Amino acid sequence: MAGAVASYDAEAPTAGPNNLFQIVAKNLTVRGFRAGAYEHLLGDMRAEVGSYLRDGRLVAAETVFDGLESAPDAIIAMLRGRTVGKTLCRLL
User: Fold this and answer.
1) How many CB atoms lie within 10 A of CB 74?
2) Is the pLDDT of residue 60 over 50?
3) Are the C-beta atoms of 88 and 68 separated by less than 8 Å?
4) Three-class SS of residue 13?
5) DSSP letter, residue 7
6) What phi, psi does 6 have (nearest 5°)?
7) d(Cα 68, Cα 27) in Å, to the nearest integer?
């Protein structure tokens, strides 16, 4: 699962299984991942994705809040799923 932080404080049910027993009942395979497991590919990824960013073929989505004083609002917005891409605070 990735992006689950947006559902930590959800007021309504979030998408996904609400009965994890169904994983067993339906013989499903669930596999987690974390970026650190692929650290050996970091150099290749930087070269390839970096060229996409430079050429404009890939645009990184960001939600930017201005000033350190906006950090609490930024965190709340992120946890409520009201941001897109990386949530950043620009230090003025």
Assistant:
1) 20
2) yes
3) no
4) coil
5) G
6) -65, -20
7) 48
